[in-house]
Amino acid sequence: MASPIPEGIYIVGVGMTPVGEHWETSLRHLALEAIQTARAEAGGLRPQLLYVANMLAPALSGQSHLGTLVADFAGLRGAEAMTVEAAGASGGAALRQAYLALRSGEAETALVVGVEKVTDKGSSEVESALATAKDADYEAVHGLTDTAQAALWMRRYLHEHGAPADALAGFSLTAHRNAVTNPHAMYRRAIELEDYRKAGMVSEPLNLYDAAPLADGAAAVLLVRGDRLPPGLPHPPTRIAGSAMSTAALALHDQVDPLWMPAAAESAGRALQQAGLQPEDVQLFELHDRFSVHAALSLEAAGFAARGRGWELAHNGTIALQGRLPVTTFGGSKARGDAGGATGLYQVAEAVVQLQGRAGENQVPGARVALVQCLGGAGGTAATHLLVQELEAA
């Protein structure tokens, strides 16, 4: 008897470039490298749709119209292509659009690539570009930077919940430890608690190890409808069992409770509901850790910790690779490096590698269910995907 045709949307190929200072590599070349790897894993499958996730190219590279630029350079002329921007959540937002397009039945295959190029410009230019993701009239105009905003957030979190000064250190320690064996990571060196405590202040109380480095990189995933899965795939396809996005107030001062991320909570809840799962069913969580306070708030919003207790999971071993809920399993933004609009796709690609059992020394034992969430700005946008591994290679 023939096997039943699988339902749903599947990831059949992923590709990632190392995150770093790629001064000699252009935006289009970075995207191409990730695309070629993803397509090779999918047996050379040619996508009908192309979504390019990017945040800063118009400001830092003088380049918009990335959908056509990348389609042209990647040999995909004729494909329907467009750019998706949602600040740091751009990667997750682009994946969401591809998922919806395939679910609609309008297409059978889609390629999503996130790419960012930031290191060619000076820090002041990069800060100005990042500020465009804030409320221009009430935040950016006053010179508020991402780092300063995160410091305000962190100070309030530590004060309101009575947490010690080094409460968030465990997130950095975990990320750096996991990045040691990740060939795509910027910082492949473990740190100790003493290193964290001695680190210089960036914007008090936020220190050097509380902030992720912004750098260049590209990541891609190739999606196929379940009834069109190609035969002979080298790796078992991974199903997207839940996909959701939500928004909250853009400006931090407009949020009813600055220590609660409603968009993160809503998108995580809907993704889990779609999959018929509960937080306790999740075996790894690729959360957004541009700043360490994001990690604590994300754990709380997604239902893995009580209000004000997210930081404790980084101290009691829960988020380690061998723990109950591993996070940032390849170093996260903190040690892998944050590639802006591509971040969400690095997270998804890394989760797929975990679920397919090919994470090497970073493997989470027996992982079959992963939650992936990326954030835009101060939690104003949240895109969450629930991935499940249920098929074996053909």
What does this structure look like?
The protein has 394 residues and is an alpha/beta fold. The protein has one domain (9-388): Thiolase/Chalcone synthase (Peroxisomal Thiolase, Chain A, domain 1, 3-Layer(aba) Sandwich), CATH 3.40.47. Helix content is 32%, strand content 18%. The protein has 12 helices and 11 strands. It has a 9-stranded mixed sheet with strand order 3-2-4-7-1-8-11-10-9, sandwiched between helices. A hairpin with a 2-residue loop joins strand 5 (201-203) and strand 6. Helix 4 (90-104) packs across helix 12. The longest helix is centred in the first third of the chain and has 15 residues, at 27-41. The relative contact order is 0.20. The mean pLDDT is 96.
Outline the secondary-structure elements.
Layout: E1 9-16, H1 27-41, E2 49-53, H2 57-60, H3 66-73, E3 80-84, H4 90-104, E4 109-116, H5 123-131, H6 146-160, H7 169-179, H8 193-198, E5 201-203, E6 206-207, E7 217-225, E8 238-247, H9 262-275, E9 284-286, H10 292-301, H11 332-336, H12 343-355, E10 369-376, E11 381-388
Parallel strand pairs: 2-3, 2-4, 9-10
Antiparallel strand pairs: 1-7, 1-8, 4-7, 5-6, 8-11, 10-11
Helix pairs in contact: 4-12
Largest sheet: 9 strands, mixed
CATH topology group: Peroxisomal Thiolase, Chain A, domain 1
Terminal CA distance reads: 16 Å
Shape: globular
**Annotation field: number of helices:** 12
Radius of gyration: 19 Å
CATH superfamily: Thiolase/Chalcone synthase
Q: Return residue spans where pLDDT drops below 50 for at least 5 consecutive residues.
A: none
